[in-house]
Batch of 2 targets.
Target 1
Amino acid sequence: MSQGLFSADMGQVWALIGAALATFLAGSGSAIGVGMGGRAAAGVLTEKPELFAKVLILQLLPGTQGIYGLLVAFVTLGKIGVLGGTAPTLQQGLLYFAACLPIGVAGLISAIHQGKASAASISLLAKRPDSFGRAMLLPAMVETYAILALLVSILTVSSL
Amino acid sequence: MAKDYIYEVARIRVKEGSLLTRAQLKQLIALPDIRSALAQLADWGWGNPDEPLEAERMLAAESAKTWELIDELLRDDDSLSLLKLTRDYQNIKAAIKQIYTNTKLPPERLYVSGGRIAAEEIRRAIREQDYEIFPEAMAAAAREAAELLAETGDGQLCDAVLDKAALTELIREGKEAKDPALQEYAALTAAQANVMIALRAAAGGKNREEILNMLAPDGELNIHTLAQAAMEGREAVADYLRFTQYSSLSDSLMESMVSFERSCEDLLLSRMREQKSEVFTIGPLVAYVVVRQNEIKSVRMLLTEKQNHLPESVMRERLREMYV
């Protein structure tokens, strides 16, 4: 089995697994994070529907990781002979796979934690509706690490 | 994966915005009479708009609102049932006294809402001596208290049996509770009640064995030491508290029982404040119920003081800490 996975014609498969992981892990993290934010938002909107626009922004903050994962996957697919480019060798395929991991893993973890921070910020907004700026800034800090992972993934995939 | 309470906590955070502040309580104190205080409370959304402005009705309505919200939020989740325990015992006490002494007070003055068992059902069970609707320990205590009152006519004995049973269950359920806020609430409530029961019993001339028999075991305080200290006086109990986890309550007990009671409430409130940063656990819901109960108690005290025309300075002095 392992010999099969590492045979010379498996480069495209490895690259595809990388693209799938970037989409799946980062997307799952975003789904969990946005879900958390959504539940907190629903709690606040039950009592204060006028806060809809503000809580919606906070709820959507953890959704960006899923978009980053998708972006890396598209660039990868465009270079490995699926949407364009040519099928990579085994070594190149493994490199694509490794390049997709940062946004996959960091996207998953950061989106879940950003969801928690968003839910907490929505609770803050519930008590102090005038604190939107501060409430938004706190979960946005988590985004930094997703952006760093995106940079590493996208630069690596682009340079291959 | 442990259950989280994100939606419920977010709703509670909105509700916390309408809790009374210390400034609002001071505003109430400054009003000339109880009518204007009730009108001000009604302006802040207290009571039911359809009901006449009457203190007890307004307070009962506020208590009912709290429990309706909690029941709506938690539906079949009985995680907060510990907070309802003492309300059932309070209703059992009221039902026994109403039935065995033919009290003519209206039900809203006797019974409280938010128990595990509906007050009406408790009254029926006591009247028909159908104790099977209660859990085992509650049934035994209700039967014993009813029989004692029927035989002796001594309401204090009846109260003592039910108080001990309520506190014993509270301690047990507190130890079994998963949430730290519930554990804190149960432990501190039981400790405060045990100290007050011991001191009142000692002041009423009870001996050490009798006091010991009235105290709920297995709590944070050693009831043998507490009973002995109570026999020696308030200072001895304060000295004993100094060596327990409730050492911060010692000085207030030295001062007076009223001061001790206030310090206990303030301590509980400070522990509940720790829940302000929680987003996922049931802790903020526990804190909200405790804070609302304290708030209603503070308003009740203030309205009573107003009714009795106490000077503003005295009311300010008795003012409790508030959550917001």
Target 2
Amino acid sequence: MKDDQVPQDDSPTYSGHKKLVYAVDQDGHYKKVQTSGWEVESFATQMAVDDINQRAADAAIAVKQGEASPLFYHMFKHRMDIVTLAQISGFFQWQIRRHLKPHIFQRLGRRKLDIYCQVFNLSIDQLTHIDESK
Amino acid sequence: MTEIENPLVHRQSSHCETGVVANMLTSQGITLSEPMAFGLASALTFAYLPFIKVGGMPLIAYRMPPKSIINGVAKKLAIKVNSQKFSDPEKGMRALDKALQQGQNVGLQTSVYWLPYFPEDMRFHFNAHNLVVYGKDGSGNYLISDPVFEKTVTCTADDLQRARFAKGALAPKGLMYTFETGQVNVDYSQQIYKSIKKTAKIMHGIPLPGINFIGIKGIFYLADQIKKLDTKPMKYTRLFLGNIVRMQEEIGTGGAGFRFMYASFLDEASEITKDKELFELSQFMTEIGDKWRDFAMQAVLYCKKRKQVSLEDIAEALIECGQMEKQLQRRLLALRASN
């Protein structure tokens, strides 16, 4: 990549930040060049972000309709899935799958709820309700 | 709370671990560029690990695993790394304060997700991020040199503690490290050739049947998988291809999955060793990096549903990358010190 060909596409995913890449000058020697983003990279990031946001939005609807527990929403909202949540919380995946059911989540003891509070850095009240604005 | 600010050279870098190592050592009087740290640690590779899932997608890596750069550079320059992990977060924070008070810059392994100074779209659950803490301000916030950012940043003690003790895959467990640098007395030329030889071997992959996901074999394996994507739903295909592009470009690789950074290392190495062939190899590596960028572009064009690009085309572009890397690998392996 030549230094004058380093893309400057002002990627929204960079939020105004600049990243550093390595590119060659006229003589083929390397130098550091800042970039405000590359449209190709930005598109890939946006796909992943949209996917996770879509999952959180779908989860919010499922929770409101009583099909899933608030945990389902918080999990996606915090960019996790069952595998990651199991690794972070220390629960088994089958336990988490149970906790995603509203009637089981409602009966969870304080000790288990506290673990989820810690994982998401939420209060008990925030954990057991969903507020999409946050 | 007393204010501490240890002397530190903050230079923006492409990648966190190489940036931290280069900046910490330079601050301690051992001038080192980021590409030189990357090259000396023989950190360049390729790996496609379908059995390890990150966010539901197979793991794709363009460099050696976390911590190999810290340890690799330290070994090559005969520097001692003092590292500590903690089971008790409070103890981990006290140890950090103590080291800062002693005038040391401290490298930390953290999660990205819990660092509030990261923009929202860059925050994900990756636990092997590296940064340097170089002081503490009057209100107890830590002064941080995060190498992927243009300027230094600050972070509250609560947030930093949460990031250091995040759980899950590659959990940092509060890892902190400092370098013990005395007089560095190494022959850079010799270490450069040694590290290049090692990279050539790593790129060749592991010579065992069935192990075809590391090194250049991994590139061809991934190309095969891309051809097979037409049996999968479009949504999965898009996320699969997008994931490759993100691992190659987004996560701080200096462009084209560290290939340009390695080319920059070869360029610098050629100047140190006065070996013209290293510069020629650097130019070839640049071509390879450009090819990878081309591959990323085709993959994204496909995701945008442009009809002129097929999965076959994308796989072909990737195979070309693999073939060029094979040529490079042979030339790197055949390299002999010129003096």
